[in-house]
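Task: complex structure prediction.
Instruction: return structure tokens for all chains below.
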Amino acid sequence: MKETLLTIYEKDATKKVLASLISILVGLFVGTIVVVVVGLTKDTITGKGIWDGVRLIFAGILSTGRDAAGNLTWGYNAQSLGNMLFRATPLVMTGLSVAVAYKTGLFNIGAPGQYLMGTMASLMIALGIPSETVPAGLIWVLAFLGGCLAGALWGCIPGALKAFLNINEVLACIMTNWLAANLVTWAFDISNFKNVVENTKAGYIYKTTFNGVATPKLGLDKIFPGSQVNGGILIAIVIAIAMYILINKTTLGYQLKACGSNRHAARYAGINDKRNIVLSMAIAGALSAGGAALYWLSGNTEFYWSTYQSLPATGFNGIPVALLAVSNPIGVIFTAIFMAMLDIVGQQLTGYTAYNEYITDVIIAVIVYLSAFSLVIRMMLTGKQKAGAVNANAEPKDDQSDKPQKGGQEA
Amino acid sequence: MTFLIQQTLLYAVPLMIVALAGVFAERSGIINLALEGIMIFGAFIGVLFVHSMQEFSVFTNAARSGDWLTLQGLELMAMAAAALMGAVFSLLLSFASINLRADQTIGGTALNLMAPALVLFLIRILVNQNTLMMSTGDAASWFMIKKSTFGLKKSADIGFLGETFLNKVYLATYVCILIFIILSIVLYKTRFGLRLRSCGENPQAADSLGINVYKMRYAGTTISGALAGMGGFVYALTTANCTANGDVAGFGFLALAVMIFGNWKPLNIAGASLLFGLFKCIAAAYSSIDINGDGVYLLAELGISSHLYRMLPYLVTLAVLAFTSKKSRAPKAEGIPYDKGSR
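Output:
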């Protein structure tokens, strides 16, 4: 028994998971420290307030509010859990987007722009096709695919600039992000999808239910009554599994990874590196945009269209999701759900204590910071296991899967 | 024309100084993707400094009696505070990427996530709203240099140059230009600058000649953090009316673009940021730009959508990059953690 445990512990994947878990724990701990320090320096926050804040950080997802005496109550909260899954849906997709690009050695900071283009295309299709003549289910499929296509085309731009003109993809992505923000605002500004029926919703686009289009619930609303969850999360999970297969079990996936490890060596081996770079960004763009489609087609979300001054946080949050999952598509599912949970925790903090939701963003930032040197944490884990010849061999392999080209010096 | 030049400078100067911040980090071998985050943090610190100093009667009296020397002193102190805390904040990046040899892109991203979160968290706790403002008055009445500052009447004629460079301007703009010039000289004409640059090109060779690569990289990122922090406050002061809300509208990333666009060289960066500032200014104020002063607002009358004008800065950058990227040359060793033992 002990030996089986030891072999599991010796595995690379286990260490990666452990390193991520340590990052999460330290992140939550730092959040706790901030809460306590702020609570002690502010006279308006009592000791009980601090204790409530700390408990919410760790278990906010199970909070059910306050009872008459003002004490926090705990238990199964179907609404929170359902909303967590709903918020996780686009995060899984943007996380996959960043992860897939990272496998090809590209840092896809363009996810917000691709997300916006997906938003625009899917909303326009969903609202533009009359549901009297075309069945709503077909419109949904068309809107989803159209959104993905728009994102893929948008992702191609930085990909092509990188492949053919050698423009830094980070830079091109940032520029295309802001271009997308302006383009989307422009397109909706001249469209007739702006909500003019409800006075309080000025500045928003119609819900897709206005045209009878909404993601099917697939029974999830029975499990999580009162929440926004729908079949989108299942679609996202299926796509994540498909991505895992694509990356690890197909020729295309192998070629993408080869370009990521060493572009020039890949070309020498007969792989078309330029095509693969563009393709990788197109897939990444389609994934981000697909996330946007799943979120905005749900039927109960409304898009604020004048977005030229801000980029969607969901796009940027794909980066921590992917990093925490060490770019593993299956891992992305779990880290996205974890991020969504922190989101709910933030709401609980704002609602029930003197603190606010930004503390959870601090926690996410600390986790990402730690994941930057997760390699060091993994080495520490290995060190405890009495560093020997086996580990010395294992380490460079570790490096390569993590950050090609630049790692490999630790061993 | 006066308006156009002033507005362009308003946008160009923070870009220029933050792009130089990027240069100092990258020339020493560290990719500083955290410029945006450090700017946000610096803006917050500077505004917070002004906000809390306004409690003291020295400054409120100075504002009431028009004692502009004290007020400009306050502005300079706020800039220094922002620079100091920006440098401290950037130590997080230096520590991760120099001592722990972490992935610099991820470390920078972490700081970019950290800064707005921390700043918004603190602002919400401090003032119970999402924006931190000055406690009394605004940037224009406290810090702007106007004709009345020199005891002149509003109608006084001080010539074109005077109107453009001495009326309705901020001292911070000129301090930044001065610092930009000094640091460019430091980077190219001093021993320190040469050593710093060598660590970004070939750290092994530099080390073999007795240069402490770790120290030089710490120096590079710390200077970078100080400049970015200061740039963040200057941005908040001059274009956001001395308020902080955990956002600098992507200026840190734009500065990164300007840096690459300027090929990591100060003079090119100055030109690039002026070009970018001009288009930013056209986007923000195209309807009130009167180029030759004949009362005709040409750009507004062309009938082109305002959305297109807003897209111009980014389109122009991409287009120029497309033409110049073949010649672009990044510091050779940037992004690679230095390891004494590697060959």
